[in-house]
Every structure is written in structure tokens, then in C-alpha cells.
Design a protein that fits this description.
heterodimer, A: alpha/beta, D-Maltodextrin-Binding Protein, domain 2, two-stranded antiparallel sheet, 21 helices, 44% helix, B: mainly alpha, MetI-like fold
Chain lengths: 477, 301
């Protein structure tokens, strides 16, 4: 009954098929990425018209322009407005507008085959690594755009109108390559209505903050929630307190992958502060497992007093607020100052984000440059803020706009922080480091490691990154 | 009669083999090739770097975590899924009370209930369980356990539990399919074999291990390989459900996710290809080992 027999053909075929499946079940994700040779050139494509004051890059009026917009939190309406201005300027040009969310999926093959669009809004969770594009020479040098006349600002160049952090963020190896359009303000956010009603004030110093936590907790509210699923958010509090304590050198060392950068006393103190919040039960219970929408909704419902985030928060939660707490007044406060802080209380991390690039291989590079100049015009930038309630990198473009509470407090912080506002770049420059550091931040915020362990583990990650021969090391001073 | 036979066969095989070569074999070869380059995936240019990517991979602590987690899934998922599905199939078919061998009452509705998760897509399963595993005291699992004075637990936010939560969801999503598969196999076993065993005085347990398992060995072997492949992936659940994703403390990182992160987010397609090569070899070894180890004499009935 059970004598061994030669394997029947059917079974053989089935097994052969199975093994093939076993192997192809893990089809490499990089399937079908074709690559070939390419010639590099520094000349700017498109145009060829005479360069005049109105047409500083010599755009040829009939050249088509292709614009790809990330259709995320800011939508695409603002881009349609910019395109309409471009169209007015060049009525014969055909504008190809594309608004997508999966930038990387759609654009990576275009870049790899040297057929990118003329303007790309490289943003969102699916963005392409911008520093790699810059290092590969795949982006257009924006120097001539920076030096061109700004539209709507009498006698100023584009560079004169930009926020210093936008200029700083644009640079790779000393040249501007990226136009980050939106200015994002980070801080700890609270409900102005709730605070007014209870007679609370955001704390200026760490000891005031400790007292405030106790007061808030005794009112039956968790003092702090955070988006535990993405430790990035709570990391903003830690970094801001550290940099405001130790000054910009703290973050310069981190961005330069310097020895002992993460073991700086200011980082250690900020880590201890975060642990103090967790260890004393001032974090919303279980916040470590919530995503951004869940935790922010708890916060909107009044379960927690503060939550770390950026200036997109008000827009992101608008629908939730309307449903759970229509009187909610989203307002940003800077983080409190640790003892001996060198930067003022009213300064914070301000990031130039929403990276617009003109690819070096674009068919109409000069058209792309002109389009970005239109974006940075007073009208263009103002319209963006009007449509999205988000500040832009263009100084003063939003002056006099009817601002919501969140936008007004963000704009006030940009103003009050001035040159003391700061930013970090290691997450963009050394992108493999970002999730690794966030892992350690998550452990710290959950109270599973000590401040010393936090500093040492982060430093190990930085040292490994510096030792990696594929890392393009950069320095900040 | 044999005239033109091979030409006939070749004619039928040409198209599928061609497609297979272009879309499966060729990308595999390309992956091997790119794993020796520093290609970014973003530009057409790259250089050969020899074994550099593999050397870096050797020192990559996160990759080691990913490997360890995949191995935990590789052992846990097939063993538990096959066991649970087989047991349920056996009980449904021969677990009926009363004399003789009969299926239990409501046999069909049980099958339907167990099979239901198979109809749901992975993201839906992930979201359902995400709501159950919510880490706040008002989460579904936490409030249920809270009624007994237990918890609240961190579930996916706890590095000691997160991977096992994922394993549970994978099992929950897979058992139904294998239950139906084993059920079909058991139905094709002649009843008199079970009856003979019962008459000879075999209990339910020994019938299960001495009759059911050996008779279904071929099906079990097939399931085993399928589940092992599923365990080596795990990408979608990790991406949607876990902190980070891949956290807390790299406790849920898997190789497939790390490949995607390196290749697409970080612009290191060469490095990602090296990981792909390692994963390919590992899958090959696992599949070959499983098929070899589980090879037994076929029982004809």
C-alpha cells in the first residue's frame, strides 16, 4: 500500500512549480529598473529667447511646461493659480499639470531614464531622497533664479525676499538646488480656549512647566500627548529644548556627524526632561501606540493639553475639530527653557519644506525656473498662504492676511524668533539615519532607556553613518 | 504519431516562458548585478563597488534584527497555522458526537466563519487588529481585559509583545484558508479508514496523529512552503500596523521593509539589491530544506 514509487509526473511538476513560487514569492522589489548610460551637461535647456527684465531666463514663449505637484495636505489649487500666471505671461505655452501623491513611484523611473518634468514638488511620505538627487547632479543650480528680480517686490532680488532658513535649506556643496516653499513652525500646541478658561499659560521655564504639568494633571487632563507611532513628533520637543539650551552649535555638530555630538550636555538634559514627563505620569496613557490622527483627536477632545507638531496641524485636524470641539483654538507655544538656555523662549525650529526642484534633465529648465520665480512672487506666495493657511518662505507675503489662530501664532513665532529660529538637516542629508534615531527617541519617550543610553545609542548611529563609505559627509558652521 | 510533438510543445511554452524570463528571471539577474554597484536608483549612473554592500550589510544591526524577526515568523507562522488549521479541520470532520465518524453539526457555517478573514485584504485585516490592539486603556483588547483587572497592555507599542501581535494577526488571517484546504483533503480520505481506526480502539488524538496527519502529508508539505514564504515577507502588516514602522526598538523590522526603505527612501538601490540577494538565497535555502526534510513516502489509498 505504501511502497515507494517513482515520483509521478504530476507531483514533480507541482513541486517544481512550488519551488519556483518559493523563489519568486520574494520577487526583488527592484524588478525592472532599467539603467543605461547618460551624458552629463551643465547647459540649461529650453529657452534661447533674449533675456529681458520681464523674461530674465529667456523662456521661449511656445515651449511646453510640465509641472508635477504633490497632492497632499496643501492640495493642488495653489499650483493652478501659479500656472495661470505663467499662462498669462506665455499664452502660447502648453502647461501639463499633474497632481499625484505617489511621487517616488511615478517619478523615480522618469529620473532614472532622464525624462523628468520641468518642475517637481518632491514632498510627502513618498518623496525621493533629495540629497541623493543633488549629489548626482540631477538638479538645476538655482543661482540665477536667486539673483533674478523678485516679482512684486520693488528693487529686490528673489534671494532678498527669502527667509534665511530657506536659503540655508536650498544649499548643497555651496550652491542652491532646492526651493522649499512652505515655512513650517514646530512647537507644542494647545487649545487657547481651554487655557483661557482654566487660567493657564504656556510655561516659559522648565520649573514653570513642571508646575503646570501638575496643575493640568490635577484638573483631570493629561499634560502631554504625542504621536507615538511616529516618534518624529516628540523628537521635535527634545531637539528644540536641547538647541535652545546649548545654542545652534549643538545642531551644527549633529548635522556635521561630529564626535560626541549626541552626547552634548544639552541633549542629555533635554532627554532627561522628556523622561521626567513620562516617568511622572504626565503623558497620556498609551500615547506610545497612537498614530498622528488618533493622538491629535484625543488632544482635540481635551484629553491632553499639549501635543508636539508643526504648523500644518490646524488644517490637518479641521474636520475633527468641527466634529468634536468646534470652539477649539489651535495655538502654538515654544518649548520651555531648560536652566541655562542661551536662546530666547520665543524661538523654535522652523523648517523650509515642500521641496520644489527643477531637474537638470528637464526639457524646459528655464521655463521651470520662471515658474518657480512666479511661485515666489508676492501674489503667488500670498495666494498659497490664503489657500492653505500655511506660511511661505517669502518674507512678508502673508502680511495683512486674515489669519486663523494657528496661522497667526505660527507667523508670530517666525517673527519673534527671527535669526534665533533654527533647523536641522541630518534627516535629509543622511536619510538612513532618520528611522534609526527615531527608534531610539521612541524608546526614550516610552521610558524604556535612560538619558545616557539615549545619547550613547544616538552617537553610535551617527558614528556608523560617518564611517559608512557611501555617506556623503557635510559640515555646518 | 510523434511527428512534430516537440515543436507543438515548444509552441505552447514559448509565450509563458518568455514572459517568465522577462519579468521574473531577468530582474533576478539584474538584482544580482546591481548588488555589486553603488546605484542610487535615481540616475542612470553607477559604479562597481565589489562586495562593499555585502560588507556593510554584515555590520548592519537593523538588518540583523530584521533577519531575527523573519526567522521567528518563519518558525512560528507555519507551525501554529498548520497545527490549528489541521486540528480544526479534523474536529469539523470527525469530531461529531454520537457513534461512528461524523462531522459536527453546523460544519458548513464554521468553515464559513473561519474562512472569512481570507476574503479581507491585508490592509483591512491590519486596520481591524490595529483597533483591537489600541494601546490606550479604551482600546478594544485593553477594555476587555480591563474588565478582569488586567492591563492595560502596550500591545504593538511594547517591544516584548509587538512581533507576537503581528504573528497572531498573520495566523488569524491564514488559518481559514488552510482549514478549507485540509478539510477538502480530509473529505477525500475514505471514511472507513477513520472507522477502522475507531473500531481498533484508537482515540481522537491517536487518530489525528496516526491517521489524519500521515494521509494529508502532501497537503501539509505544500502549506508549509506557502506559509514560509508568507513569513519571509510580512511587509504590508509591518508597514501599516507597527510603530515607526519596524519598531518599537526594531522589534518588528522585517527584511522586505528594510529593502524598501533602503532602495526607495534612502536612494541606495545597490545596497537594497544586496539585501534582496541575501533574502533570495535565504528563501531558496528555506524552501529547499523544507521540501527535503518533509519528504516522506507517499501513502496511496
Amino acid at each position: 500500500m505504501n511502497a515507494p514509487r517513482p515520483m509521478p509526473r504530476r507531483i514533480f511538476l507541482r513541486r517544481a512549480g512550488l519551488s519556483a513560487l518559493a523563489v519568486s514569492g520574494t520577487v526583488p522589489l527592484l524588478a525592472n529598473c532599467a539603467s543605461g548610460g547618460d551624458e552629463g551637461d551643465d547647459e540649461v535647456s529650453g529657452g534661447g529667447e533674449e533675456q529681458t527684465e520681464e523674461n530674465p531666463f529667456g523662456v521661449s514663449p511656445s515651449d511646453p511646461l510640465s509641472v508635477v505637484i504633490f497632492n497632499g495636505g496643501y492640495g493642488e489649487e495653489y499650483a493652478k493659480f501659479h500656472e495661470s500666471i505663467y499662462q498669462e505671461e506665455f499664452p502660447d505655452a502648453t502647461i501639463n499639470h499633474q497632481a499625484i501623491t505617489d511621487i517616488r513611484q511615478k517619478m523615480q523611473p522618469k529620473f532614472a531614464s532622464s525624462e523628468p518634468p520641468d518642475v517637481l514638488d518632491n514632498a510627502g511620505a513618498e518623496q525621493m531622497p533629495i540629497s541623493t538627487l543633488a549629489d548626482n547632479g540631477q538638479l538645476t543650480d538655482l543661482t540665477q533664479l536667486w539673483e533674478a528680480d523678485a516679482l512684486g517686490f520693488e528693487g529686490m532680488t528673489v534671494q532678498d525676499t527669502l527667509h534665511p532658513i530657506a536659503i540655508e535649506a536650498a544649499e548643497y556643496a555651496g550652491k542652491p538646488y532646492v526651493m522649499n516653499y512652505a515655512l513650517q513652525v514646530y512647537g507644542i500646541w494647545y487649545d487657547q480656549m481651554l487655557f483661557d478658561e482654566k487660567g493657564w499659560q504656556p510655561a516659559q521655564t522648565w520649573s514653570e512647566f513642571q508646575d503646570l504639568c501638575e496643575t493640568i494633571k490635577s484638573a483631570g487632563i493629561a499634560p502631554m500627548a504625542h504621536q507615538g507611532k511616529y516618534p518624529y513628533y516628540i523628537q521635535q520637543v527634545l531637539m528644540d529644548m536641547a538647541v535652545k539650551h546649548g545654542g545652534p552649535e549643538v545642531v551644527y555638530a549633529i548635522d556635521s556627524l561630529a564626535d560626541g555630538a549626541w552626547q552634548h550636555d544639552s541633549i542629555r538634559m533635554a532627554a532627561e526632561a522628556l523622561l521626567w514627563i513620562k516617568d511622572n505620569g504626565y503623558m497620556l496613557e498609551g500615547t506610545e501606540g497612537l498614530d498622528h490622527i488618533q493622538s491629535q483627536t484625543e488632544w482635540n477632545k481635551g484629553e491632553a493639553a499639549f501635543i508636539p507638531s508643526g504648523s500644518w496641524l490646524e488644517n490637518e485636524q479641521a474636520a475633527v475639530v468641527a466634529e468634536v470641539n468646534p470652539d477649539f483654538k489651535t495655538t502654538v507655544a515654544p518649548t520651555p527653557l531648560l536652566d541655562g538656555a542661551v536662546l530666547p523662549f520665543e524661538s523654535t525650529r522652523v523648517e523650509a519644506a515642500e521641496a520644489f526642484i527643477v531637474p537638470a534633465d528637464a526639457a524646459n529648465q528655464v521655463g521651470g525656473l520662471e515658474y518657480v520665480r512666479i511661485m515666489l512672487s508676492k501674489d503667488g506666495a500670498r495666494k498659497f498662504t490664503e489657500l492653505t493657511s500655511a506660511p511661505t518662505v517669502v518674507n512678508g507675503a502673508a502680511d495683512g492676511l486674515d489669519a486663523s489662530p494657528g496661522l497667526a501664532s505660527s507667523l508670530a513665532l517666525i517673527e519673534s524668533g527671527g535669526d534665533d529660529n533654527w533647523n536641522y538637516y541630518y534627516t535629509i542629508w543622511y536619510s538612513p539615519m532618520r528611522p534609526k534615531i527615531e527608534t531610539v527617541v521612541g524608546e526614550l519617550a516610552a521610558g524604556r532607556i535612560t538619558a545616557d543610553e539615549f545619547c550613547d545609542r544616538c552617537q553610535d548611529i551617527a558614528d556608523q553613518t560617518a564611517a559608512d563609505p557611501t555617506t556623503q559627509q557635510r559640515t555646518r558652521t | 504519431m510523434q511527428h512534430g510533438k516537440y515543436r507543438f510543445i515548444a509552441g505552447f511554452l514559448a509565450v509563458p516562458l518568455g514572459l517568465y524570463s522577462v519579468f521574473v528571471i531577468w530582474p533576478f539577474l539584474q538584482t544580482f548585478f546591481y548588488s555589486f554597484t553603488n546605484w542610487t536608483g535615481l540616475s542612470p549612473e553607477f559604479e562597481y563597488v565589489g562586495f562593499q554592500n555585502f560588507e556593510l550589510l554584515w555590520d548592519d544591526t537593523v538588518f540583523r534584527h530584521a533577519l531575527r524577526n523573519n526567522i521567528v515568523l518563519l518558525i512560528g507562522l507555519p507551525v501554529l497555522t498548520v497545527f490549528i488549521a489541521l486540528l480544526f479541520a479534523f474536529l469539523l470532520n470527525v469530531g461529531g458526537s454520537g457513534a461512528g465518524v461524523r462531522s459536527i453539526r453546523g460544519h458548513g457555517s464554521y468553515k464559513l466563519a473561519f474562512f472569512l478573514p481570507q476574503v479581507l485584504s491585508v490592509p483591512v485585516i491590519a486596520l481591524v487588529w490595529l483597533a483591537i490592539f489600541r494601546s490606550t486603556p479604551d482600546g478594544l483588547a485593553n477594555s476587555a481585559l480591563g474588565a478582569f483587572g488586567l492591563g492595560p497592555y502596550g500591545w504593538l507599542a511594547d517591544p516584548a509583545m509587538a512581533l507576537y501581535c503581528l504573528l497572531w494577526v498573520l495566523i488569524w488571517g491564514s488559518v481559514g484558508f488552510y482549514l478549507v484546504l485540509f478539510n477538502a483533503a480530509i473529505s477525500s480520505v475514505p471514511r472507513d479508514l477513520f472507522e477502522a481506526a475507531f473500531i481498533d480502539g484508537a482515540g481522537r488524538a491517536s487518530t489525528f496523529f496516526r491517521v489524519t496527519m500521515p494521509l494529508l502529508w502532501d497537503t501539509i508539505q505544500t502549506s508549509w512552503v506557502y506559509l514560509a514564504i508568507l513569513a519571509l515577507d510580512g511587509y504590508a502588516l509591518v508597514l501599516i500596523m507597527t510603530i515607526g514602522p519596524g519598531n518599537p526598538d526594531s522589534s518588528t523590522q522585517v527584511m522586505a521593509l528594510q529593502i524598501a526603505q533602503a532602495g526607495f527612501e534612502n536612494g541606495k538601490a545597490g545596497y537594497a539589491s544586496a539585501m534582496g540577494v541575501v533574502m533570495f538565497l535565504l528563501t531558496l535555502v528555506v524552501a529547499a530544506t523544507l521540501l527535503r526534510l518533509t519528504r516522506r513516502e507517499r501513502i496511496e489509498y
